[in-house]
Amino acid sequence: MEFGLTEEQERMCEEVRRFADNEIRPHASEYDREEKFPHDVVEEAAEMGLCGATIPVEYGGAGYDAVDSVLIAEELFAADPGIGLSILAASFGTEAILEYGTEEQKERFIEPVARGEAISGAAISEPDTGSDVSSVSTSAEKDGDEWVIDGHKKITGKMGIRASDTAELILDEVRVPEENLVGSRGAGFLQQMQFFDATRTGVAAQGVGIAKGAAERALEYAEQREQFGRPIGDFQAIQHKLADMHTETEAARQLTLKSAWAVDSGGSPNTKLASMAKEFASRVAVDAANECVQIHGGSGFVDDFDAERLYRDAKITQIYEGTTEIQKMIIARELQGKGF
Ligand SMILES: Cc1cc2nc3c(=O)[nH]c(=O)nc-3n(C[C@H](O)[C@H](O)[C@H](O)COP(=O)(O)OP(=O)(O)OC[C@H]3O[C@@H](n4cnc5c(N)ncnc54)[C@H](O)[C@@H]3O)c2cc1C
To answer: CATH number of the domain at 188-335, please?
Structure first.
């Protein structure tokens, strides 16, 4: 069993960290405050192969595997979850086309995303249907060689990840040619569940990144802030918080990397592990962000420091791509051999 990173992975992490330090951290607060989509940063990230990092080289991507993409997500989210998400989610949904799409669909829809010229999305949930994915009301009726789609997908006014863009989507008799159907007719739900195995591991990586960012910032602040004539990091209560944050982040990282390794290995479905990683890493992210604010005291409650932004940003990892309650339900059903 090998736990270390390869030299190539170490180099890749350093490169992404340098990019995050120079292009993301200095602007993160501004993009969050103004709820501005970071077009320039996303374009630069695309040039580095970070948008759609796992898109194969033959479709213009960087061809990274799932383990690499977890390492990339960790670095980007440790710098800033809002901008990190704008970069990573630029290719959200391509996973399904890569897995189930035709050659023509891959060339047509995936290549522009890899080049940073297009942004993809996955509109799964609806205002009335989130956790119960099987009950979506969006309809698709066949009319000759076309599908006619009607439905409504909406999210606005976010508490966190405000640099990332979400919009209301109204599908009003949208006509989609038969050749754009991804995968087999009638198998959409199963395909969607398999799609989540890979993407939930990605959300787990986001959680690890947020936890790492919070743990690092808390350590830095504890070393510089003085009370009672000493750095607050000298007090045992603060030391215990720092120890817990860094230990839990490492545990979440290992579980997430194992889930990514399972995705890369193929073979048996990764459903239980992906849900375990997503549930645990998102919990660690929320706890670490909370303790980061606590260690910053009053400074953690105002926007002079990153702590309050991480606190707002962390919560989404327990909600999207299946809430914590749904992950636990999946884990239990897998343990009981019932499937989802
Ligand atoms: C910022 C943001 C971005 C998003 N991006 C996307 C996107 O790109 N594409 C997309 O399709 N969707 C997206 N979503 C939607 C997201 O996936 C849903 O919000 C999420 O799945 C939860 O669904 P819901 O909000 O309808 O909550 P509900 O399903 O109504 O759940 C409400 C509460 O009930 C609990 N609950 C529900 N069912 C059960 C059960 N059986 N057992 C126990 N507890 C249960 C839930 O865990 C939760 O605590 C996004 C959401 C946000 C906030």
So the answer is: 1.20.140.10
- DSSP category for residue 80: -
Ligand 1 neighbour 155 (Cβ under 6 A): yes
CATH 1.10.540.10 domain position(s) in the chain: 7-114
CA distances from 242 to 48, 221, 303 (A): 33, 11, 22
Task: Yes or no: say if 274 and 259 are a contact pair by the CB < 8 Å rule.
Answer: yes
Catalytic site positions: 321
Ligand 1 touching residue 124 (CB < 6 A): yes
| pTM exceeds 0.85, yes or no | yes
Pairing of strands 146-153, 230-231: unpaired
185: left (phi over 0), alpha (psi -120 to 50) or beta: beta
Please tell me if the CB atom of residue 128 comes closer than 6 angstroms to any atom of ligand 1: no
Is residue 155 within 8 A of residue 127, CB to CB? The reply is no
* Ligand 1 site-directed mutation target among 283, 316, 323, 331, most atoms within 8 Å of CB: 323
Q: What top-level class would CATH report for the domain 7-114?
A: mainly alpha
Q: Average pLDDT by consecutive 10-residue portion of the chain (340 residues)?
A: 92 98 96 93 92 92 95 98 95 92 95 89 86 88 94 86 88 95 88 84 97 98 98 98 98 96 84 96 98 98 96 98 96 88
Ligand 1 pocket: which of 319, 328, 340 to mutate (most atoms within 8 A of CB):
319
169 pocket-lining for ligand 1 (C-beta < 6 Å): no
The span from the CA of 117 to the CA of 78, in Å, is 26
